[in-house]
Amino acid sequence: MGWMYHYSNTSMNWTQARQWCQSTYTDMVVIQSQKENDYLVSLLPNRKQSPYFWIGITKKQKNETWTWIGNNSTSPFTGRSTFQPSPMVTNSGS
């Protein structure tokens, strides 16, 4: 995929997870495609209930649109995944 992915089994809220990602690696993952999503799902431990894994998408209010971190764009990627917007996945260029 051209990226290096990391995850943690430590329970954190989204803000704590992002701070951990930024201080330990670079930032949370921004999923670009169904292919990338499928690849990440294949790497992560299977979770059938919480905690899931945080990713780099957020919204401040319940009725707001989900936006990706970094460029604040809404997602062109609309696939459903096992990722629920809780520990986390980070990415760092390789």
UniProtKB/TrEMBL annotation:
Q: How does it sit in the membrane?
A: Single-pass type II membrane protein
Q: Where in the cell is it found?
A: Cell membrane
Task: Please state every residue range assigned to the domain named C-type lectin.
Answer: 1-94
Coarse class of the primary localization is membrane
Query: What SUPFAM superfamilies does the record tag this protein with?
Result: C-type lectin-like
Going by the entry's taxonomy, the superkingdom of the source organism is recorded as Eukaryota
GO CC terms for this protein? plasma membrane
Question: Mind telling me what this protein is named?
Answer: C-type lectin domain-containing protein
A Pfam family in this protein? Lectin_C
